[in-house]
Amino acid sequence: MVRVVPKEVSEETLRADIERYKEIALELGASACEIIPADWVSVDERVRLKCFVPRCPRVGESPNCPPYTPGTDEVRRALIKYQWAILFKINVEPLSDYLISQSRTPAERRRILHYHRKTNEVVSELEGLAFRDGYYLAMGFGGGSCKDYLCNGLVCQFLDSGRCRLPLRARPAMEAMGINVFELITRVGWEVYPLTYAEEDPSSIPCAISVGIVFIH
Ligand code: SF4
To answer: What residues make up the domain containing 159?
Structure first.
């Protein structure tokens, strides 16, 4: 049920709501989830620049990737206003799903995109729940390019004609907003490895994860 937007949210209500969102994230398939102070999130110009150096094939291919995403100054000024965020991860299991051969077969691409799509689903769901509970500024980011995990590599309809195919689902990746994802993950105590899709042997990868975040209030 939609709640009336209160003048002020009590700490008790906020805490109870965020705990509930955490439980829902786990029910929706997150492997782990943490409630974090929003000021644990740092925005770094170098992260956004890494979309260009070396150049990601999706740069400029959708409005949710640089150079179309908001600049780091704007993101920093906005995120500093939040108090709490929910960070979650989805483990890539089995790890062989992470491997993509030189030929990048459609089946391999589908396997890895599943994790970004799932991350986007959890982000969208939590953000929508929080919005309807009165946290109308709730805002979430996932991982990867919506051109891949939502549009299966088709031409971006927003850039082509101004109408996104899935406007309520498509959103930028954390890294596309300049969020230092690796730093944040290590801060909460999760393992993260600097992997590339060029890894050839699943036994050489300790773990692979897809990560999303929702700023609540
Ligand atoms: S049309 Fe597809 S690629 Fe373009 S913004 Fe929407 S979801 Fe992303």
So the answer is: 11-215
